[in-house]
């Protein structure tokens, strides 16, 4: 993902007003189980989820079943590197028994050393939404495009472009979304323990510019300190472990 390293500095490790607990385990037969609970202290809403995942490695297949406290059931079937090297195809389906609501998606991902392409097809008979993104890489330089087309309305709902440069310890990223939202970020891995980032956002026709700096310091393999501040004097602190 273009700009992911800088975005992680600003987004990961912060859970304002939220209590979150995740548990994972794996059975002897290879089935992975995970559960999670999230409590919003402001609204009082509690959300829980339970999922299981089983992989058939000989055929490149993965089956995932999910359930959450909104009483929504979901099933994912994924096949990877069997149709073609670097190609991953996922069929997703969701069902809400209380309302009878159903949805489905077909996702494809292809990646090698020079190109990555993702596509999502919303399986809606009334008119699917087609979402396609691609990134090209050449000697550290990156160029990407993302578009979304609503077949029911016969129009493009997203047209985004991004450019960047990335090495193992440095990343520069700029983007233009729908011709009016502009953004940029810089990421620098100062040391094995310290990551720093700078980001900026601006919307055409508005004088309001958002600028921020952030840092992450690893205390050990599990614990880290996170801090960020922006030009509106909003400060964020985090201590995940």
Automatic annotation (TrEMBL):
Any Gene Ontology CC annotation: pore complex
Pfam families reported in the protein's UniProt record: Porin_3
Localization per Swiss-Prot or TrEMBL: Mitochondrion outer membrane
Origin: domain of life: Eukaryota
An example Gene Ontology molecular-function term: voltage-gated monoatomic anion channel activity
Sorted UniProt keywords: Ion transport, Membrane, Mitochondrion, Mitochondrion outer membrane, Porin, Transmembrane, Transmembrane beta strand, Transport
InterPro entries: Porin_dom_sf, Porin_Euk, Porin_Euk/Tom40
Primary localisation category: mitochondrion
Entry similarity comment: Belongs to the eukaryotic mitochondrial porin family.
Protein name: Control protein HCTL024
Source organism of this protein record: Heliconius melpomene (Postman butterfly)
């Amino acid at each position: 993902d273009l700009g992911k390293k800088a975005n992680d500095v600003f987004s990961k490790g912060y859970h304002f007003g939220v209590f979150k607990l995740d548990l994972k385990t794996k059975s002897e037969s290879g089935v992975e189980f995970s559960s999670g609970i999230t409590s919003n202290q402001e609204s009082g809403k509690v959300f829980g989820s339970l999922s299981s995942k089983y992989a058939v490695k000989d055929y490149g297949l993965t089956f995932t079943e999910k359930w959450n406290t909104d009483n929504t059931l979901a099933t994912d079937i994924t096949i990877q590197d069997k149709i073609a090297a670097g190609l991953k195809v996922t069929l997703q389906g969701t069902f809400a028994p209380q309302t009878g609501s159903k949805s489905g998606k077909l996702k494809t991902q292809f990646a090698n050393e020079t190109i990555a392409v993702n596509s999502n097809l919303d399986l809606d008979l009334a008119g699917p939404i087609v979402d396609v993104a691609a990134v090209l890489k050449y000697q550290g330089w990156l160029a990407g495009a993302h578009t979304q087309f609503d077949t029911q309305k016969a129009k493009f709902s997203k047209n985004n472009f991004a450019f960047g440069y990335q090495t193992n310890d440095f990343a520069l990223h700029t983007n233009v979304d729908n011709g009016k939202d502009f953004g940029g970020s810089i990421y620098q891995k100062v040391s094995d323990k310290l990551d720093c980032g700078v980001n900026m956002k601006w919307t055409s026709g508005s004088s309001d510019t958002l600028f921020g700096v952030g840092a992450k310091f690893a205390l050990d393999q599990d614990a880290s300190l996170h801090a960020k501040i922006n030009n509106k004097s909003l400060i964020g602190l985090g201590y995940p472990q």
